[in-house]
Design goal:
The chain is built from six helices and five strands. It has helices spanning 16-28, 54-57, 66-75, 92-107, 128-141, 167-190, and strands spanning 2-8, 33-39, 78-84, 116-123, 154-156.
Length: 191
C-alpha cells in the first residue's frame, strides 16, 4: 500500500490551493494507493519557538494539533505541501508546520529521509517561485526525493474555483501525482 498525504496550507477550506492539490491526489488513485487531503485551515499549529526540547525528548512540547499531523507525515510514503502565495511567500500555517516538523524530524534522526514529496503553490499573479522554493527547501533539507513534472507545480487563481481554468497548472498537478506514485513504487522495489 502506498500512502500519499496532501497538506493544504491555505486558511480557506475548498479554495484554489485545495482544488490544485486534489487534482494531484486524484491522479494517484488506483492500484494500491491511499490518499488523504489534510487541511490546516481547521487546525491549530502554533509557530516553533526554537526551545529545542525536542532534541532531548523526541517530542514537541507545544500543545496543539501538530502531533497527529506529524504522525501522518511520518506514516506517509509521499507528502505534498501546498500554499497559496500571501504577500510573496507561504502562509503562516504551512510555515509553522514545516518549522516544527523539520526540527522534530532531525531530533528523531531524520524520519523523512528518502520519502518522496514536493511543493504545490497557487497565486493570483506572482510570487510562485519564492513560495515554491520555501516549501522545496523543507524537502531538500530533510533528505527527501522530489520528482519533477511537466512544469513547476504552480497554478494561477484568486477567486474561488479560478484555478480550475488553469489547464496547464492542472495538467502539471496530474503529472506530478503520477510521477510521485511511479517514484515511490521504484523506491519500494529496490528497498
Amino acid at each position: 500500500m502506498i500512502r500519499i498525504l496532501g497538506i493544504i496550507g491555505s486558511p480557506r477550506i475548498g479554495g484554489n490551493t485545495e482544488l490544485f492539490v486534489a487534482e494531484a491526489l486524484k491522479a494517484t488513485e488506483g492500484d494500491d494507493v491511499e490518499t488523504e487531503l489534510l487541511r490546516l485551515a481547521n487546525r491549530e499549529v502554533k509557530p516553533c519557538d526554537a526551545c529545542l526540547s525536542c532534541k532531548q525528548t523526541g517530542e514537541c512540547r507545544i500543545k496543539d494539533d501538530f502531533k497527529p499531523i506529524f504522525d501522518k507525515m511520518v506514516a506517509a510514503d509521499g507528502i505534498i505541501l501546498s500554499s497559496p502565495v500571501y504577500f510573496g511567500s507561504a502562509t503562516p500555517q504551512i510555515k509553522s508546520l514545516i518549522d516544527r516538523a523539520g526540527y522534530l524530524s532531525v531530533a528523531r534522526k531524520r524520519v523523512f529521509e528518502n520519502k518522496v514529496g514536493g511543493p504545490m503553490v497557487v497565486a493570483r499573479r506572482a510570487g510562485h517561485n519564492f513560495t515554491l522554493a520555501q516549501l522545496l527547501f523543507f524537502f531538500l533539507h530533510q533528505g527527501m526525493i522530489v520528482p519533477g513534472s511537466s512544469y513547476w507545480n504552480i497554478a494561477f487563481g484568486r477567486e474561488k474555483d479560478e484555478v480550475t481554468k488553469d489547464e496547464e497548472g492542472l495538467l502539471t498537478a496530474k503529472n506530478f501525482g503520477k510521477k510521485m506514485v511511479w517514484l515511490i513504487k521504484k523506491i519500494k522495489e529496490t528497498g
